[in-house]
């Protein structure tokens, strides 16, 4: 591959334009890239340094692989580069098959070399040696939002955490859109929202980002890029690219946070596969909202907050881009939801008293509970298919000696209160 990278710099004060990266006539070559002003933010690593950091890209350090190539965890310190704080990093190796990979790598370097924000993942440096193209990011301890929301082995995200993530991601987008030359992110989705140890959300993967139109012009893309299920209808139909496309994608992610369902899920019945098509009409009606809320929340969410988020998602998903809110407005609506405290009493642990006049009643429950426990066990044995058919919820949950379930809370609430009163 030609190691010359063409980038145009318009003036020393303005940001390097992303639109010019793809212009093969632009005069800047790779050596200019390393000496340009944003390069002072970035460390340039050699391939052997990166091998050292990642134990030769060992499988034990493997974090995952997306469209660009594999990602490995590594560690840098000031022995590697004077002035670098010792810290874990994520090293992404770009698979350079085809021109697009190279352009996306360059977009990432040029954009993240210039833009810094608490809700954008930090690019620490890059490597560009022969045909090798790698990126070195701050390490995000909790990986991406997709894994937390949809993988079965992870514990469920609480309501507060979901809102915190939504606020963080919204601030990241608002920052990009608020730039003097607005940046359209184009690939807003749960797998591109990374989470640090405290669940602070940061946007990653800027390879598809584009500078927004200036003045009244709108971009028309010849190639529609992005991810199915998140792309705005007008962008798919006409290729018109505006910041409002990102707002639509944000609406889809809000819906995923509410429902715990994927934007596209081929494993579901036909009419439920596209999340927006299935859920949108529920968002308008407060009374129907319960039907689509993520069962993994176990009812532990602010009703008022859920209503506000649903109304906001509905607005973001407007068919007409002009009816969608700006990301600044989205942040203004979402932030106060973090303060709402109208959550139901949390999951509790109920320990049945060993003796007393409630024994008979409780034993009665226990027997029924044991039966039900058997059912739960059978359910696990018979596998996922029954759970998908709603098997679990068709059978009311009865008392057992110890429970930590909100469904149980609803069923047993009254008995709990009377048991407490009688026990006084
Ligand atoms: N900075 C980082 N810190 C920790 N893990 C990361 C970091 N960057 C990426 N990862 C993880 O590496 C894996 C691959 O990420 P990558 O962004 O390449 O692909 P993806 O987002 O899964 O798919 P796509 O190609 O659609 O973006 C994911 O599991 C992601 O969570
Ligand atoms: Mg990604």
UniProtKB/TrEMBL annotation:
Ranges for region Disordered: 359-394
InterPro entries the record matches: Kinase-like_dom_sf, Plant_Ser_Thr_Prot_Kinase, Prot_kinase_dom, Ser-Thr/Tyr_kinase_cat_dom, Ser/Thr_kinase_AS
Gene3D superfamilies tied to this protein: Phosphorylase Kinase, domain 1, Transferase(Phosphotransferase) domain 1
Compartment(s): Cell membrane
A single GO molecular function term of this UniProt record: ATP binding
Protein name per Swiss-Prot or TrEMBL: non-specific serine/threonine protein kinase
Basic and acidic residues bias locations: 359-384
Principal subcellular localisation of the protein: membrane
Domain Protein kinase: 57-338
